[in-house]
UniProtKB/TrEMBL annotation:
Membrane topology classification: Multi-pass membrane protein
Function, as annotated: Catalyzes the dephosphorylation of undecaprenyl diphosphate (UPP). Confers resistance to bacitracin.
Organism: Chelatococcus asaccharovorans
Gene assigned in the entry: uppP
Repeat recorded as keyword: no
EC number: 3.6.1.27
Protein name: Undecaprenyl-diphosphatase
UniProt xrefs under HAMAP family: Undec_diphosphatase (MF_01006)
Catalytic activity, as annotated: di-trans,octa-cis-undecaprenyl diphosphate + H2O = di-trans,octa-cis-undecaprenyl phosphate + phosphate + H(+)
Superkingdom in the source lineage: Bacteria
Molecular function in Gene Ontology: undecaprenyl-diphosphatase activity
Length: 267
């Protein structure tokens, strides 16, 4: 591995962890940053596999709660309903993602699409945040199954790079009656099966393309994504509860506009 690839992988891993759980699109940031760094992995596997670091970050933060859920699952109806709700929300992405996998990576993984999605999504997030939607549901265990299924379809919009998985689920949950904190926390739990499924499916489809060099770069990105993801998960809920999503909306718009300018000038 040359030094430039190592540094690029570390930067991209850091960005993955910082953006995965924010409503700003981690995949969009990785594709855009990778484009200008001249970093392109085989089959676009790095951008997906590096998410394992962010997955483990959220699992480590919620470890005790996950253990409690697993312990109560066999006999607690409320816990059973919550777990079922997360799985129901995951189903649309599992089905649509499997069928559209090739189209997404070959057609939609495009920096122009990323920039436009970032800008449009930023304005949508700003409008939803300013309108103060939600409030009926303040605890994720209260979400009805019909609501979680609809949130799952909102999440599928994030198959367009630049839309943001967390952003789509948060906006969807708020439009359906959740307050900001509960919507953000549900996006955390939904991230676990969704990102783990995407990781496993992409690895299954592309493991033949990977060599020791690629695996080494993914490992570097994984470590950086884990460390930066820990910071975000531990601080995001409190920040959102106090300040909302305006900062992230403006960030999307600025990054998208800067990306468009860079593509026009540099190609």
């Amino acid at each position: 591995m040359n030094t430039y690839d190592v540094v690029s992988a570390a930067i991209l891993g850091l960005v993955e962890g910082l953006t995965e759980f924010l409503p700003v699109s981690s995949t969009g940031h990785l594709l855009l940053l990778g484009h200008f760094l001249g970093f392109e992995s085989k089959g676009r596997t790095f951008e997906v596999l590096v998410q394992l670091g962010a997955i483990l970050a959220i699992v480590s933060v919620y470890f005790h709660r996950l253990v409690t859920i697993a312990t109560k699952l066999p006999h607690d109806p409320a816990v059973q309903r919550f777990v079922l709700g997360v799985l129901v929300a995951f189903l649309p992405a599992m089905v649509i993602g499997a069928f559209a996998h090739s189209f997404i990576k070959e057609v939609l993984f495009n920096p122009w699409i990323v920039c436009v999605s970032l800008i449009v999504g930023g304005f949508i997030l700003m409008v939803v945040d300013q309108r103060g939607l939600g409030g009926r549901y303040r605890d994720i265990s209260e979400f009805p199954l019909s609501m979680t299924l609809k949130i799952g379809f909102f999440q599928c919009l994030a198959m367009i790079p630049g839309v943001s998985r967390s952003g789509a689920t948060i906006v969807g949950a708020m439009l359906l009656g959740s307050n900001k904190r509960a919507a953000t926390e549900f996006s955390f739990f939904l991230a676990m099966p969704t990102m783990a499924g995407a990781f496993a499916y992409d690895l299954y489809k592309n493991y033949r393309l990977l060599d020791a060099h690629d695996i080494g770069l993914v490992a570097i990105g994984f470590v950086m994504a884990f460390l930066s993801g820990l910071f975000v998960v531990r601080t995001l809920l409190d920040y959102v509860s106090r300040h909302g999503f305006a900062l992230f909306a403006w960030w999307r718009i600025v990054v998208g506009a800067a990306g468009l300018a860079g593509l026009i000038v540099f190609g």
